[in-house]
What does this fold into?
Amino acid sequence: MNKSFIAALILTGTAVSTNVFANQYNSFSNLTYTDYESGDSLALDTQYYFDKRVALGPLNQFDYINAISNVNARIIDTDADTSFSLGGEYFANSVMFGAQLTRLDDADVNLYRVSGGYLFADNIIAKINYQDSDNSALDGAFSYELQYVHEITGKDYLGFTLTADEKFDTYGVATKYFTQVGADQYFVAKFDIRAGDADYWMLHGDYYFNKMTSVFASYNKIDDVELGARFYFNDNWATSLSYSTNTDTDDDMYRISVRAQF
It folds into this structure.
């Protein structure tokens, strides 16, 4: 066999293998700075999964329903308060257990959240959450969540998340549509709506020119408009920039974020 042909095969196989593994990740970390009318904030969050999450094409798009055990941590520093949180989810076959602790430092309050869930199938999971605090003025409360994803063709899907509080005074549905529109182009549309005691809706869209470059926009009921762009320098590092304003108050907000995923 021709040696150059063998060498080409080896190089091709190496490239394919590298590409496959480059699109699988365990950890995701974000550093975000936000400047708004009344001040600014700095946030650092990280999440680690105990198995690989596989990108669907765009490097920040993954399966709608996650069934991989994980841990997470976050710190947010604003002019009003500094908060810390630590939590995670553990999946044992089809059963899920979760916990989250959030500390509001300046307010001297600890928030506790525990969750239990059951994965009925790869495309449907139900969860019950209970949240309480060490502030006697705040009552503990249950909430409910149901996620369902409908696979369309290829990687395209339509996902739904239904939520409600324990008395069903507030309830909502979040939808997400993911589709491939070209050889390396993708489109994502999200629509969230809440009703009852909380009356709110939000529409968001992302267009991916390729797996590394995208633009996004959002609009909500209180007339907030956001425009932004995201760019991956390589398979592991990205940055995003966005500008938002309220068409009623003319309040402006600028956000820059750096993301690392490995």
